[in-house]
Design brief:
The complex is a heterodimer of chains A (381) and B (392).
Chain A lengths: L2 E8 L20 E2 L3 E2 L1 H10 L4 E5 L5 H7 L13 E5 L3 E2 L2 E2 L5 H7 L1 H7 L1 E8 L2 E3 L3 H10 L4 E7 L9 E5 L5 E6 L8 E10 H13 L7 H11 L4 E5 L4 E3 L3 H12 L24 E3 L4 E3 L1 E3 L4 E2 L2 E3 L2 E2 L4 E2 L4 E3 L2 E2 L4 E2 L4 E3 L1 E3 L4 E2 L4 E3 L6 E3 L4 E2 L7
Parallel strand pairs in A: 1-4, 1-8, 4-5, 10-14, 16-19, 17-20, 18-21, 19-22, 20-23, 21-24, 22-25, 23-26, 24-27, 25-28, 26-29, 27-30, 28-31
Antiparallel strand pairs in A: 2-3, 6-7, 8-13, 9-15, 10-13, 11-12
Chain B lengths: L4 E7 L19 E2 L3 E2 L2 H9 L4 E6 L4 H7 L14 E5 L2 H11 L5 H12 L3 E5 L3 E2 L4 H11 L3 E8 L11 E6 L5 E7 L10 E11 H13 L6 H10 L4 E5 L5 E2 L3 H10 L3 H8 L15 E3 L4 E3 L1 E3 L4 E2 L2 E3 L2 E2 L4 E2 L4 E3 L2 E2 L4 E2 L4 E3 L1 E3 L4 E2 L4 E3 L6 E3 L4 E2 L10
Parallel strand pairs in B: 1-4, 1-6, 4-5, 8-12, 14-17, 15-18, 16-19, 17-20, 18-21, 19-22, 20-23, 21-24, 22-25, 23-26, 24-27, 25-28, 26-29
Antiparallel strand pairs in B: 2-3, 6-11, 7-13, 8-11, 9-10
Chain lengths: 381, 392
């Protein structure tokens, strides 16, 4: 089997800054935007870029993620040639193959990658919100005859010290890499997206494994080694909306931004769809008491209250007299009557009983975890 | 692999009174309830009972139906072991030719072949024109408990819930210990003010052995294979017919009025829950699309919408299907707008049914009445200039 490009989506991270939202599930599986999960963006980008061979590397709390990705059918990735494959750590005669870092996760799956025998391996992270045509980046990689191409995005200068920064020459060749520099020389932040020539990367990983086994992370270990050896590395600049939803505030903000149909991410674009597993639920029902503005609502919802500038994911119920404002409500949440929810993220399957309140602030988002319940049990029905 | 039953879907319903909605599609693929088609209901019954195959008999080409069903995987009908959707189209046309040329129709062999291969104890015959959500496991259990070779489904309804001229048959059910269908009559004779009458649901469950006997009879007498002729055969043979009473939501969709009423019925929570929020979900082919957006100027009450819509105007007592857009200042009430409707600014729509992809330009007013909703054909563009031609 010969594959030009194999994508490896790194989806094993915990995302500990999301607190209770990533206690039971990995960050890429966190619900997003009413009917998506975070990993849908990377997988849809693959499908839309024509990259149909995708390995999804999972490790931390993988169950929800594995269920979601399945055989990749929702993204059209269940082809007879290629498709989506879930890669989990496994035990072998060499011992247990847990992943100790991004590069190590690739090393541990070397057999899988070799089976595809790709020219290029596209490394993606499963926890960013963006729409990107990877085929253009791969074309750039071929044109520059690079050994490694790093996807970068210009960030505001005053924020550059929070990122891994690529310093480039006039031809976009990477000459220096600085992790969270105090005084950044460039504002090109690494997106954690890499195109590697597989043969070369493989050699680095295998050689190192035979020596000191320190090549664990792309940013920390692999890129510095490439620089030391003067490997040809280029920065590919991405322009457009890109969000690392690593914190509760950024997760909330990214959801709120998604509501507006004129927002640049343009989730409604039919030429670059974001695919997901589609829930099969009855249509959304807005009763005579409903008052919904500036919001998106998904099928299976029942709304008898007020919803303003919020996202209701599928199968959410909002009872009479309740007000949901500036909030992201995940799937299967039940909100009783006379409830107030403001500046909040409500986890999947949570229940908010009659009269309860969950009120956060714009810089301090209130969070109710998955299956959490709040308020007295006084259901109207 | 043993499965519960072989399903024969007789999708040759009379579509004439549903024109123009049935111009390009059989009754079975009529869109309903924002995101479904009528075939989804019998298919969901099969899905919930884990039935793995079905044979479809269709009068026309069935193109729109096949487009919806695809491999049948949505309803679990694509198992590599014994599963499948076996389709037979242009039934009426083939029949005409067979009669004219005096050759054997393959119609009965198609039935026989399917049922013999399915190798099940029971055979189900159903149509798709009667909207309902039947739990087949419960029907099978009832059928076995009663021990008769055939069970017919009925619901007690008011006569007024059916159209004056209806294809629904009246079952005479002897109540008491053994509930049996003892007689079948035309519903049209029953006065409209009758408060309770047993309506046949065009659905029967039979023992396979009895089905094959009936099939021979149908073959010899050139009868259509349907619930109605199966019941008639059983009565003729003096075979006891168990009567299974269905108590959920039911509507016979036979003309524009009943189609409109069925959709509007969904805005009553009892009907909606009875049809959709049961232990047996209604399953349809899902589509990719963003959640529906309600803009700052929108005002939507007592309505149902599917995903991927954008609403900036007013919607009241209506059902809006996928990918529709309603501009600011527009008012849509008491209407059914199928997929892809585009409603311009300040448009007023009341008591209308739009087939797919109807576009209405700014400022147009279009109002039908509850007893006579205006139906607009697929892909129509309505302007202030042509609005009168479209109201006929």
């Amino acid at each position: 089997m010969k594959t030009e490009t194999l994508a490896m989506v790194l989806a094993g991270g915990q995302g500990s800054r999301l607190g209770k939202l990533t206690k039971q599930i990995a960050k890429p599986a966190v619900p997003f935007g009413g009917k998506y999960r975070i990993i849908d963006f990377a997988l849809s980008n693959c499908a839309n870029s024509g990259i149909m061979n995708v390995g999804v590397v999972t490790q931390y709390q993988p169950q929800a993620l594995n269920d979601h990705v399945g055989d990749g059918k929702s993204w059209g990735l269940n082809r007879h040639k290629g498709g989506a494959t879930i890669l989990q750590p496994y035990a072998s005669v060499d011992g247990e193959k847990w992943f100790k870092g991004t590069a190590h996760a690739i090393y541990q799956n070397i057999d899988f990658i070799d089976r595809h025998n790709p020219d290029y391996v596209l490394i993606l992270s499963g926890d960013h919100i963006y729409k990107m045509d990877y085929s253009k980046m791969i074309d750039f990689h071929k044109e520059t005859a690079a050994s490694l191409t790093v996807g970068v995005i210009p960030v505001p200068w005053d924020e550059a010290s929070r990122f891994g920064i690529m310093n480039t020459d006039l031809t976009n060749r990477i000459i220096e890499f600085e992790e969270k520099p105090k005084e950044p020389k460039s504002n090109l932040a690494s997106m954690g997206i890499y195109v590697f020539n597989w043969a070369r990367l493989r050699q680095y990983l295998v050689d190192n494994q035979a020596k000191d086994r320190t090549m664990l992370d792309f940013g920390h270990d692999v890129i510095p080694a490439y620089l030391r050896n003067s490997e040809k590395m280029f920065a590919y600049s991405f322009e457009g909306y890109w969000k690392d939803v690593g914190t509760l505030e950024s997760l909330w903000t990214a959801n709120m931004e998604l509501i507006d149909p004129t927002h640049e991410l343009n989730i409604r674009d039919r030429d670059w769809r974001i695919y997901s597993r589609n829930p099969d639920t009855p249509p959304q029902f807005l009763t005579k008491d409903a008052d919904v503005v500036n919001s998106t609502i998904t099928d299976g919802c029942y709304v008898a209250g007020e919803v303003d500038h919020s996202i209701l994911s599928y199968n959410v119920r909002v009872g009479k007299g309740s007000v949901v404002k500036d909030s992201f409500i995940m799937p299967n949440v039940t909100i009783g009557s006379n409830v107030r929810v403001e500046h909040a993220i409500i986890g999947e399957d949570a229940k908010i009983y009659d009269g309860a309140e969950i009120i956060g602030k714009e810089d301090e988002i209130a969070v109710l975890g998955y299956e959490e319940e709040i308020g007295g049990r006084k259901d109207e029905d | 692999m043993r499965t519960k039953l072989a399903a024969i879907l007789n999708l040759t319903e009379d579509a004439e009174r549903l024109q123009p909605l049935t111009e390009q599609r059989p009754v079975a693929s009529l869109p309903f309830g924002c995101r479904y088609r009528l075939i989804d209901f019998p298919f969901s019954s099969l899905y919930n009972a884990e039935v793995i195959s079905a044979a479809l008999f269709i009068s026309g080409s069935g193109h729109s139906l096949y487009d919806h069903i695809r491999s049948g995987s949505t309803w679990g009908l694509d198992s590599p072991i014994g599963g499948g959707v076996f389709t037979h189209s242009h039934i009426e046309w083939k029949w005409e030719i067979a009669k004219r040329e005096n050759i054997d129709v393959t119609y009965y062999d198609n039935h026989r072949g399917y049922v013999e291969r399915a190798n099940t104890d029971h055979v189900l015959i159903t149509g798709s024109g009667i909207l309902c959500n039947v739990n087949l496991d419960s029907v099978i259990q009832y059928h076995e408990t009663k021990g008769n070779p055939i069970t017919a489904l009925f619901k007690n309804v008011t006569r007024a819930s059916l159209p004056e001229e209806t294809n629904v048959l009246r079952y005479v059910v002897n109540s008491g210990q053994a509930e049996n269908v003892t007689k079948v009559e035309s519903m049209n004779e029953v006065p409209m003010d009758a408060p309770k009458v047993a309506a046949g649901m065009d659905m029967v469950l039979m023992d396979t052995e009895f089905f094959l006997e009936y099939l021979d009879y149908a073959d010899e007498n050139m009868k259509e294979v349907s619930a109605a002729t199966a019941v008639a055969y059983a009565l003729k043979q003096d075979v006891l017919i168990s009567a299974y009473e269905y108590t959920g939501y039911m509507k016979s969709i036979e003309d524009i009025q009943t189609y409109y009423e069925a959709n509007m019925d969904m805005l009553d929570e009892n009907n909606f829950n009875s049809l959709f929020y049961r232990n047996e979900p209604v399953v349809t082919r899902t589509r990719h699309g963003a959640p529906t957006y309600y803009g700052a100027t929108s005002n939507v009450t007592n309505s149902q919408l599917a995903s991927d819509c954008e609403v900036y105007g007013n919607v009241k007592n209506s059902l809006i299907f996928r990918k529709s857009k309603i501009a600011e200042g527009a008012t849509v009430s008491d209407s059914v707008l199928m997929q892809g409707a585009e409603i311009g600014k300040d448009v007023v729509l009341k008591h209308v049914i739009f087939d797919k992809k109807v576009r209405v330009e700014d400022g147009v007013h279009l109002e039908g009445t509850p007893d006579n909703p205006i139906v607009i054909k697929k892909n129509t563009v309505i302007t202030k200039e042509n609005v009168k031609e479209n109201v006929q």
